[in-house]
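I am still getting used to backbone structure tokens and would like to learn alongside you. Please make up or recall a protein chain and show it to me in full. Would you write everything just below, so we can both look at the same thing?
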Amino acid sequence: MPSASPSSLQAATGRRTRPGLRGRQTDPAALAELETLLAGARRDRDELIEHLHALQDRFGHLSLRHLRALADWMNLPMAEVYETATFYAHFDVVREGEPAPPALTVRVCDSLPCQLAGAQALRAALDAELDPAHIRVLRAPCMGRCEQAPVAQLGRRHLTHATPATVGAALAHGDFEPEPIAWQRLAAYRAAGGYALVQRLRSGATTIDALQTRLAEAGLRGLGGAGFPTARKWQAVRAGAAPRYLVVNADEGEPGTFKDRHYLETAPHRVLEGALASALAIDAAAIYLYLRDEYPGLHAVLREAIGELEAAGLAAPGFIVLRRGAGAYICGEESALIESLEGKPGKPRHRPPFVAELGLFGRPTLVNNVETLYWIPLLAAGAPFAGEGRRGRSGLRSFSVSGRVNKPGVHLAPAGITLRELVDEHCGGMQPGHRLLAYLPGGASGGILPAALADLPLDFDTLQPHGCFIGSAAIIVLSDQDELRAVADNLLAFFADESCGQCTPCRLGTEKLLEQVRADDWDLARLQSLAQTLRDASICGLGQAAPNPVASLLRFFPAELARAGTTLHETPPPATPIDHPTSLMGPRTPAIDHPVGAAAAASLSPSPGDIVNTDADAIGSSIPPDRPPVSPTTGGEQAKSSRLPPLLQKQDAVHPGLREATVAAFEITLDDVPVQAFPGETLWQVALRAGERIPHLCFKDAPGYRGDGNCRACMVEIEGERTLAASCIREARPGMVVRSASSARARQAREGVLELLLEHQPARADSPDRSSHFWELVEQMRLPAAAATDAATDAPAPRPADRSHPAIHVALDACITCGLCVRACREVQVNDVIGLAHRGARATIVFDFDDPMGDSSCVACGECVQACPTGALMPASLIDADGRGDSACAERKVDSVCPYCGVGCQLTYHIRDERILFVEGRNGPANENRLCVKGRFGFDYPNHHGRLTTPLIRRAGSPKGVDPAFDPASPLSHFRPASWDEALDFAAAGLRRLLDAHGPGVLAGFGSAKCSNEEAWLFQKLVRTGFGSNNVDHCTRLCHASSVAALMECIGSGAVTASFMQAAQADVVILTGCNPTVNHPVAATWFKQAAKRGTKLIVLDPRGLVLGQHAHRMVRFTPGGDVALFNAMLHVIIGEGLCNRDFIAARTEGFEALAAHVAPMTPEAMAPLCGVAPDEIRDIARLYANAGRAMIFWGMGISQHVHGTDNARCLIALALATGHVGRPGTGLHPLRGQNNVQGASDAGLIPMVLPDYRPVGDAQYRAAFEELWATPLPAQPGLTVVETMDAIAAGKVRGMYILGENPAMSDPDLHHTRAALARLEHLVVQDLFVTETAQFADVILPASAWPEKDGTVTNTNRQIQLGRAAVALPGEARPDWWIIQQLARRLGLDWDYAHPREVFAEMKRAMRSLDHIDWARLEREGAVTTPCAADDAQGKDVVFDDRFPTASGRARFRPAVPLPPDEPVDAAWPTVLITGRQLEHWHTGAMTRRSAVLDALEPAAVATLAPGELARLGLAPGVALTIETRRGRITLAARADPLMPEGMVFVPFCYVEAAANLLTNPALDPYGKIPEFKYAACRLAPG
């Protein structure tokens, strides 16, 4: 095996590569089981929970193999499936190696009514009696049968008034299905007048307005908790744009609540009629009925009832959708319920916007609870309601009563009734031997009132002054036999267990509150601080209401607490704050400043305005209070799901600063000062512009990051609002009065949040990043020194660090679950690896299925590292053996540009001791801080031990070639060191000798797209003026030469017509022959984000691609069938009249010839050639043509063919025929593969054109260069890369100068190329390492790596950017421009450049494309797009808006004929070989295989095949495979890829030990002179 790189040596010593793709792969058997189970089911995202139920029901648990299959089947990220499955209590996720749960589960309800009835003893008895190997016993929250407590659930059957004996008997009987329910069938209901209301509404006999008036007169309110008038809710939702939805909230999880079950069991059709009437009132597109999973019998009833409606024609099939909860109390909150309906974890959304504005699927949504709907038909029929009531109240109210009464149950009583009246008149009084002590008027959330207040009316408003509320009217009656501290413990444990975990106060505060209450000594200061933080800073009513039980006990029952042994004390004020400069927050204030006693207890109680509830409609309202609806594109606090974040909304191609200036500003008041705000700005952004940087953790002030509002560190106070608001997510509104720095309440909430987080952090000295944003914020907020430097004594035990990934260190004990890494992965990079699984205090960041990061599907872009505010995710290179690190350890930072692909990502090098420690993305126009694995972690190649640091001259007699015995890192076996003078003299003398002996054509030069524009300019100038020929080329010849040829021919320019950022504006984007997620990962983020916003991606490729998971259409076509496919699309567009006739007439020529050419190329005629069904061709053609704005992107899958120019001609014709050029969101864009391939081409590294693409035969243009350079220039085009190798073989070229290129690896048919290189009489190589090409050199000149030089580069978007030297050159290495100049001088050229800026100045004199762009401007602005119209103007992102740069100003159509590949497959050579790049490795691997992280991620050569292809060969993934073509053979490891089609193999060309280009075909495209890298006939065999 050849040995030419460090990695090849490692591979030879046993390093193995992955046998499959990253992360877990789908088990075909599990997928088959899933497809059988879900046959006929929809795959939409909102069906996820239903499908999880199907798996749980069928297999008794959720295995990871089935979850992986489900993710694949639904095209969902693994993390999204896992976080949903682990959020809900009724799903049992079982990992590999874990036992599956027993076949039977017994759940014992431990809600307060059941606890009062002995549930704890019942569970203890069952634990002792039952064999856990066969039956597991679990606690369960409220099962909604509180009147029959205690309750146990055996399988799906509920056993009421359960005892160990009755449970044992039931187990022996073996009936575990739901108990039968006697319910009123449709016929009986209709016989009693049922559905008359619906029929009258449909017929018009009763109008919606009349019904609405009737409900308003009756005073019907939402009866789930908030009590909002039903008629007003209808009006608010009906005002929104269609489609609108009705959601029925039947997820009554509040302990003590069971009235929904009562009404649904007794009169399901009455509820359904109310739902249909509500749906008619708002013209709903569908009804979604969400029923809690604890009611399995009711699910069967409702399925049958809905079936009856559909059969009777009263409801259209599918109009009423029954959905099943999965065990999450929080889903009773309406926005969390909507999240669950959409198939996600049930986490409440922020308000505004309200669900009436942006609800289910982002549409206006009416949410009603069951009892409200139950009353609608009755009230419409004239049933008494408004006339009922006591004490001035109107209407009737259903009370769920449980606890110490004789007749628990649902009791219909007049509004305004008191607890005492309710118990005496409806509940049969107290149980014998029990005296009323206290009662809960609103379930667990509603607080606890003493018997002394039992004569208060049980109504929405009367309880608030006493710190309680009615909520869902779940009344739990307590007696003198009950221990109130145990009651509070039960309720707080419930809140802690049911917290969704989204926001810091609730996630951590409920646990901390429970911990405090379980102590015998209650710290009132700590309780008060916790309570206030929970109330002020929690997102929803669960956290806001959690302190209510404790507050009630302290307010009303101090004597009972004392009798229970509870002592109360006050902590002294905190220690002296850290001595830091005054922060923007101001000084910290003590949490409590009054003595222990009644005042302290009162401080724990909510004020009347603080009353909150979590059930149904209770947390705020589903509609905005007395304000007009918000449009779907505006609003305040954003909904996390249905409302897309700003990143994922359609964006105008306008710089944000300019956009600000063009919209109408308005005024708000911030801390008593009027300030200016703009539409769409958050309060955080407004404050920042006003000079205040509000503390934040979960928000990142960077492009692409939306506010999430979950950490609650940025709370502000808004006049007129009950709770504080998260400034990072609340949008400013005209007239708002906001208090931030001046608000003690906001300051205390922020401090409370930080204190909770500090208690769960490792000590700062032990932190993975002691300079993290988190610790900076701790200092800024002046928290006590002890808390800021040491971990709390009760902090959780450290979690072991995850060191499985070579690039990223994971320390989740420092994680604050802020979700920034999730958004970084899911929304910014759209890689979909990271999720937030589980809930409450158990919530945790996961990779895929909670796999080690190194085993996950992570692509190591590192966005999560750059986003993490605590150091939980850090560059592994910064972490010591003990897990400690410091992100501020660099001595200096230098801004530059990434040296890899053509995206042109800006970055910052962090440097210490002249070495790069780590890299961060910078806010450049192309990347907006984003990087890929190469840009972020591939920075260390300049420090590789094989780096050249001194010139080398070949030893006499040492053979030229890729010698397996040669070690590139120890080259002195074949070369000797030389001084610079000796090496340069030797190099120049050899070139001069050949020139003098044979004339100008004897020499050739290969420049490099890895070098700067200035170096490219000097190199081509040297060849043309020093060598006397145009024999200069570079890697564009092997990349996009055919694309440039077609673009020059058809539109007069080889550059892209629009940047890839314009994809954000497009309606349709075609991506063909490119694999951006691998080759242009950051550009791919723009495409993936566009797809999330609604842009339709059409991916056309012979292979299945990861990008296809985001595509509207992923179309695979036959390799080599490009022209046939594109011509068929043109046939459809022209034949169906979909072309843009106005554009064609005004802007093009040659259309009629094209139309005639494609007339016979029907989809039916072309389908056999391209392998795409005719209807599919028509569909994608229509999608593209009918789009308002559409773009086409392509890569080397288009260009690297013998018909590559024809391929590009067809794509250009598609754009011209539809007019998709010259407007925002339209254009043609060949994605450039190297960092400066655009700039090097612009600068003239092409044999047939001078700089700026003017033909060398253009005498006038050539004369201008002759004048500039004071030298005659040749008029004949030079040799291309492949032609040069042929000329060497023919003896016409005898000497070469190769700068930074590696043709011994990159050229096709490497046997031929290497033989040619060996034949050269004199070869000068200038490079960083002894590459494979350098092994043929006579002299090697040690060059400069990108981080060691100054210079400009031009990316694929035409953006010129400035790279800056960050570290010193090692040893005797020299800048490339300096070396070129030294050779030029020795060849007799009078050059005297002192710095690259002087070279750039010379370029400006000759290149019009650089008009209005100078070095100073680049230093100032960082990036400028060409062309640029003025010194102070932005460059044109979209060009050719009025004319094309052709003689006529028109673009030209050029027909193309479908031709076969140069060597089609046949029986002897049946498989298509395709070559290309890997994500981790770039070009020939000279740089990336010398980067520690990149080489660790992909250490050895692989060939990728379909699993079926491997099976045909009888090979397992990972074993050796031999690939042979007519030119050679290689052996390498086989890797399975289910996206690959059979009959094809893909090989990256970066591995010298299995060099793919030993196999490739050198046949050339006749126009672009590019080889056919993308098609070679081969055969496969076991290795």
Summary: The mean pLDDT is 92. The CA atoms of residues 1222 and 1441 lie 4 Å apart. The first strand starts at residue 62 and ends at 63.
